[in-house]
């Protein structure tokens, strides 16, 4: 039997646009949803015109997407209000089943790219009086919510007089935007200097295709924001980190106005705050280079943000001294020394670890910092058992960005593949500090030459005054 496709409008938030396609594709594959494009989506536009074979599929997609604001069953699309009305009037009878006297309703008027006053919105709304609406108007949680949207393009400062597009339809489902608010860092109990923002953490969890009951790991866990996102989607979460003070909530507070950390600030307190204690397995103080997991331990996903060495150190336990031995009497109180853990080595270790400890088809989702001018796919970390399936950029400055990489484990590794050479990827940290030093030096020279110039001007003026006297 041939499938019956229906048209829907997906309306997105204009935030982290670069992650949108990857998130939706990941969720379609997770839920095995058939979706086809009615029109090729344009990168900067907030809407997609798509088709699903069932409303349940559209609802399922919306139930997990953080990029999506609304999903609307499309009843009409036009480039003028008159055209929209004539389209809707021709289909009027098709709408009757949606409205009967027992069903409350509301019509929302939205504009994108141009502001309208409430009165202007109401006057647009009144033009829909021919719809067969019989029930009562209910502004909060109506049975049927209709949406009328005028799209004026992306150039907010100079919108056209008339909209480019007008859409009308029935709201089917809203995305998960409210979860971003719930997990806001402003109200979170425990945060650190490199805590990941909730929207990006949730996007990472969606890239990892986390499902209820999964076991996931963040081996550079910090304040545990990625664990919170994964736990929200039902995963059981583990983390580890080299920083004892961080995991015990004893570092300097990250909030400007906070003088001292509260006694109970830690990853578990965050889990409690969001009622996710049941999903928390543990966080352990551990250097990533000394792996303590049983070889048979398999995670459903690994999501992580390794250190870049800019706002936190890239260190591992070790010493430059050869044949260093800790004497018996110092063993109990010995605090191990740390040495530099370069970015190429961190990513080599991470990919080798994932090839070993991910289940086949499990995902490794991690950030990777780059200099934009140097970027090409060849500079990304690779492993023969991990296939790169998504790669999205988040610009950090004019010259730097980080890329969210999603790898899928395709097969178990051979013994040689567990001992691959250090990768030849660029050390972001080295270049970052070299460039910073160069630009500081340039600034110092500029300041010195400016001072010299001013001094010379001053002396010339002074001499001129003295001669005049
Ligand atoms: C970018 S931060 C992670 C932040 C975290 N996603 C959060 O939301 O708070 C990187 C973390 O890696 C940890 N780290 C650095 N070197 C490490 C190592 N050798 N082994 C384990 N963790 C390490 C740091 O202590 C830091 O907490």
Automatic annotation (TrEMBL):
GO cellular component, one term: cytoplasm
GO function terms (MF aspect): tRNA (guanine(10)-N2)-methyltransferase activity; tRNA binding
Assembly with partners or alone: Part of the heterodimeric TRMT11-TRM112 methyltransferase complex; this complex forms an active tRNA methyltransferase, where TRMT112 acts as an activator of the catalytic subunit TRMT11.
Keywords from the UniProt entry: Cytoplasm, Methyltransferase, RNA-binding, S-adenosyl-L-methionine, Transferase, tRNA processing, tRNA-binding
Entry function: Catalytic subunit of the TRMT11-TRM112 methyltransferase complex, that specifically mediates the S-adenosyl-L-methionine-dependent N(2)-methylation of guanosine nucleotide at position 10 (m2G10) in tRNAs. This is one of the major tRNA (guanine-N(2))-methyltransferases.
Signal peptide limits: none
Domain tRNA (guanine(10)-N(2))-methyltransferase TRMT11 N-terminal: 6-177
Entries under Pfam families matching the protein: Tmrp11_N (PF25904), UPF0020 (PF01170)
InterPro entries (alphabetical): DNA_methylase_N6_adenine_CS, RlmKL-like_Mtase, SAM-dependent_MTases_sf, TRMT11, TRMT11_N
Catalytic activity of the protein: guanosine(10) in tRNA + S-adenosyl-L-methionine = N(2)-methylguanosine(10) in tRNA + S-adenosyl-L-homocysteine + H(+)
PROSITE patterns: N6_MTASE (PS00092), SAM_MT_TRM11 (PS51627)
EC number: 2.1.1.214
Protein name from the UniProt record: tRNA (guanine(10)-N(2))-methyltransferase TRMT11
Highest taxon above the source species: Eukaryota
One GO BP: methylation
Protein family (similarity comment): Belongs to the class I-like SAM-binding methyltransferase superfamily. TRM11 methyltransferase family.
């Amino acid at each position: 039997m041939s499938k019956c496709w229906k048209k829907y409008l997906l309306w997105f938030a204009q935030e982290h646009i670069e992650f949108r396609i990857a998130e939706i594709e990941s969720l379609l594959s997770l839920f095995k949803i058939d979706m086809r494009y009615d029109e090729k989506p344009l990168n900067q536009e907030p809407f997609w015109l798509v088709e699903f074979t069932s409303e349940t599929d559209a609802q399922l997609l919306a139930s997990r997407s953080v990029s999506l604001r609304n999903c609307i069953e499309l009843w009409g699309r036009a480039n003028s209000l008159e055209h929209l009305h004539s389209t809707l009037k021709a289909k009027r009878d098709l709408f009757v089943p949606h409205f009967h006297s027992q069903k409350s309703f509301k019509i929302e008027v939205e504009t994108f790219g141009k502001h309208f006053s409430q009165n202007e919105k109401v006057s647009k709304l009144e033009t829909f009086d021919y719809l067969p609406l019989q029930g009562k108007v209910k502004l909060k949680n109506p049975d049927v919510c209709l949406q009328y949207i005028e799209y004026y393009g992306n150039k907010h400062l100079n919108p056209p007089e008339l909209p480019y597009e007008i859409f009308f339809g029935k709201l089917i489902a809203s995305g998960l935007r409210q979860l971003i608010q719930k997990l806001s860092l402003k109200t979170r109990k425990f945060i650190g200097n490199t805590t990941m923002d909730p929207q990006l953490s949730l996007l990472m969890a969606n890239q990892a295709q986390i499902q209820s009951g999964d076991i996931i790991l963040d081996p550079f866990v910090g304040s545990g924001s990625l664990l919170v996102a994964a736990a929200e989607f039902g995963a059981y979460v583990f983390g580890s980190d080299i920083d004892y003070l961080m995991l015990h909530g004893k570092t300097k507070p990250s909030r400007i106005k906070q003088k001292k950390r509260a006694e109970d600030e830690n990853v578990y307190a965050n889990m409690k705050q969001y009622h996710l204690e049941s999903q928390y397995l543990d966080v352990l103080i551990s250097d990533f280079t000394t792996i303590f997991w049983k070889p048979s331990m398999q995670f459903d996903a690994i999501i992580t943000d390794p250190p870049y060495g800019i706002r936190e150190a890239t260190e591992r336990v070790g010493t430059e001294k050869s044949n260093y031995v800790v004497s018996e009497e110092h063993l109990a109180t010995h605090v191990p020394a740390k040495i530099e853990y370069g970015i190429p080595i961190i990513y080599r270790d991470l990919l080798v670890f994932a090839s070993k400890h991910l289940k086949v088809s499990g995902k490794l989702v991690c950030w990777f910092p780059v200099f934009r001018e140097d970027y090409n796919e060849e500079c990304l970390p690779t492993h023969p058992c991990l296939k790169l399936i998504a790669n999205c950029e988040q610009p950090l400055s004019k010259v730097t960005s980080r890329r969210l990489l999603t790898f899928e484990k395709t097969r178990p590794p051979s013994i040689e593949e567990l001992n691959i050479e250090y990768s030849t990827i660029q050390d972001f940290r080295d270049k970052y500090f070299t460039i910073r030093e160069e630009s500081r030096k340039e600034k110092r020279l500029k300041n010195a030459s400016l001072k010299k110039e001013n001094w010379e001007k001053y002396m010339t003026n002074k001499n001129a005054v003295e001669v005049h006297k």
